[in-house]
C-alpha cells in the first residue's frame, strides 16, 4: 500500500487529506514510479481552490522524481530501475508511489539528485521556455523586468538570464528577498511595497522601458507591467498568483505603444517529446555543470501538505520547496 494526498472538495488547505491508497500494476503504456521527492508549486493551489477545475475526488500535485518499479506492456525507452522526473498531468504527484503514463516521463541524469529534480522540473522547464521560446529575440545586453524574482522560477530565471548576458530588473516585497535575488543574478531589485515600480523601471532604462516583462503575479501587477514596456514590448503573463488577469482593452495596447500580450502555459511547450527533451537537456546541462544552482529552502513531509500550502500562499516560502520521505 502507498500513501497520497487527495481532495474531495475545493477550498483552503484544510481540504487536503492524507490517505492510504492502493496503486496497482501499470497498464499499457504505463509504469509504476516510486517517488523519492515531490515538488510543491503555486499552480497546485489553483487545482485545490477550483481555479483550475478538475473532477473530484482527485489527487494533488504535478511534479515528482523517483525510480521506475514496474513497466507495463508496450512501453519503450524506459525500464525498471530508471531514474525519472516529470511535470504535468495527470494529478497525483503528492504520493509515495503511483502509476504514470510513460509519455509524461523524462530521463533523469545521475548527476542530478531526486530532490533537485523535484524542485526544478516544472520551474526549470518554465524558465527554459520563457527564455528560449517566448522571446527568442532577447540577446546579451537586453534588460527585462521579472516579477517575483525571489520565487522558485525567479531564482532559476535570474541565473539563466545572467548566463545569457541579459540584465534582470526584479521585483519583490522585502529587502531580504531582494538580496536573495541579487545573489542569484538579478542586477536591480525593486521593492514594490516601497517604490514606484513604473517610475523606477523608466529610471533604470533611461526612460525607454523594457522590451519584455515576465509577470507571474497577474491581477495586481498587469497594468503596471504594461506601463513598464517599451514601444512594441511584450508582456508575458505566465501566472496569476494574485488572481486572474482582468480583461485587457486592445485599443489600450495601441495607445501604450503597440504592445503585445501572451498568456502561455508550460503544457504547450513540452507537449512535443522532441521539444521537451531539448528544453530539459539544456536545463539539466546547466544544473549538472553548476551554472544554475537549485536551492531548496523548505522541506516538508508529505503529510504536511496543508502547512506547505499555507506557507506558499502567504509568501512565507522563498525559492523552491519539496516533499521528501
TrEMBL record:
| One Pfam family cited in the UniProt record for this chain | ADH_zinc_N
Q: Which residues cross the membrane?
A: none
Enoyl reductase (ER) domain ranges (all copies): 11-323
- Which UniProt keywords are given for this protein, alphabetically ordered? NADP, Oxidoreductase
Q: Does the keyword NADP apply?
A: yes
Single GO MF annotation:
quinone reductase (NADPH) activity
Stored SMART domains: PKS_ER
Tell me which PROSITE patterns the record gives: QOR_ZETA_CRYSTAL
Which Gene Ontology CC terms are recorded? cytosol
Instruction: Quote the NCBIfam families the UniProt record gives.
Output: PRK10754.1
State the name under which the record lists this protein: Quinone oxidoreductase
Species in which this protein is naturally found: Gordonia phthalatica
